[in-house]
């Protein structure tokens, strides 16, 4: 690390390195023209990693032959072939041995062919999965680009959950925490600073937000060096394979024991009946060989040569049926593992729902409104609401040649779209105040906040997040005229009722709040967690994905329980679960803290009826 810091200082730190990379301003980024991109890729390389060549068909054939049962059968087949030909002649003695070898060949070819075809399909699937887009600044404009198009000199925007796609230097940010466990195996988060600004490819943004300057891409990164040194890890056997191998070993040992016992008894009887043990004729040797043949036959008959073939053909049929349902399976053995499943635990957002969100209801001022009718608010109330929407966000609205594009998560784009429908201008609102501090959203806090400087001595904090959490931080409420009143118990119960109604209509709810502050000291202290004024509660609709209801019914007919695990409001989760036919009349919907307090007896009693689990916070379950 010290060598890196010394080298970093010698190159002129961040500004010196940026100047050497042709970056005039971090606000503008690189030129981004085709010539500029091509030149940077030619000098510094492309952001791709050298992949190992795919397995050939013969490799899959070899892997299929490693099955213990097949190995035993191969030995039995060879012994049967040798003994059969030696005792019965070539015309009659080859039947049993070749028959066993043919069944082995069918098993190997079916397994290898299925696995090889799936490897080709998964190779294409991996390419699709790696088409990840990140946000960069080029030509003074924030835009989405593929991670493969990332070049040295790019200014990349980072937010919670992002995978860092290249090595780089920290430019600026708020509470940026990096998880480097994939590289260092250390669980402690790393917090980049201007003195130690190094960010590594393959790591993940655990908390906060920020910007980085790309300095290395592809195989020149730390992640690229690690990838080149790793060897492929072999796959584990499935439970059925373990059981079959156990049966084959047991049967083989029993068969071998009886074969040896039979051979010894036959030889003993032969020797007991023979008058002179010192004289041996050709007939005597032939009799001993016949005894050995009987022993080998016992071993061959004991090992079930049809079992691997039956299992392979049934799994191959299962794989083919799953392919018809567009469910790709990499290995035949996975069908057996999946076929043993009796319970499916599914997330809600993006899995059971489409993850295409829209604001459909809003509480603001004195009541609930349709989104297009919130304009009845006073100018002061509307201005503060628009400020909350456009400043307290990690999304952005980009306009190029009269084309408008919203960048950010589905929730953020839904809120931004709502702000635009209110007649707000993203850039105009952003230019009216200066961001002094940001507390990004994460799973434990379930909220995000921003501190704005309005004038030299006046500041405003905006907070947005899970309604029950943000509302608990509020002491006041703003009406439609912009007047602020204390949030007494009656008003609080009224707002909690609004949240409950929204949730029962399967809407995700967010509460928007603000707090005015004065004095420079507020910029040096943490963002407050109390004393806010409730501004609005929005209800966001995330429709159920088509086909989910039928899929849940199909699972129920197959004896598979489907359970929902979500971090959304418990009432929202229950409403979505009912819509998906997951939550039934006798089913249970439980919050994480309650679930953790169950005793063993309560767990045994309630677990079969548990259908919805709300974890609430990351440490709840």
Quick structural overview:
Helices cover 44% and strands 22% of the residues. The chain has 621 residues and is an alpha+beta fold.
Descriptive report:
- By secondary structure, this protein is an alpha+beta fold.
- It has 22 helices and 21 strands.
- The protein is elongated and about 120 Å long.
Walk me through the topology.
Elements: H1 2-10, H2 13-20, H3 34-44, H4 57-64, H5 68-88, H6 90-93, H7 95-129, E1 133-138, E2 141-146, E3 155-158, E4 167-179, H8 181-184, E5 198-199, E6 204-216, H9 222-229, H10 239-273, H11 282-302, H12 306-324, H13 333-339, E7 343-346, E8 358-364, E9 367-369, H14 379-391, E10 396-400, E11 403-407, H15 410-421, H16 426-431, E12 434-439, E13 447-453, E14 458-466, H17 467-472, E15 474-478, E16 484-486, H18 489-504, E17 507-518, E18 532-541, H19 548-557, E19 561-566, H20 570-579, E20 588-591, H21 592-597, H22 600-606, E21 610-614
Parallel strand pairs: 7-19, 15-18, 19-21, 20-21
Antiparallel strand pairs: 1-2, 1-3, 3-6, 4-5, 4-6, 8-9, 8-18, 10-11, 12-13, 13-14, 14-17, 15-16, 17-18
Helix pairs in contact: 4-7, 5-7, 5-11, 7-12, 10-11, 18-20
Which features would summarize this protein structure in a list?
621 residues; alpha+beta; nine-stranded mixed β-sheet; six-stranded antiparallel β-sheet
Terminal CA distance reads: 37 Å
* Main pleated-sheet profile: 9 strands, mixed
Count of DSSP helices? 22
The assigned structural class equals alpha+beta
Radius of gyration: 34 Å
**Regions with little confidence, pLDDT below 50 for 5+ residues:** 231-235, 617-621
Shape: elongated
Which range does the strand content fall in? 15-25%
Portion of residues in helices? 40-55%
Average pLDDT works out at: 82
Number of strands: 21
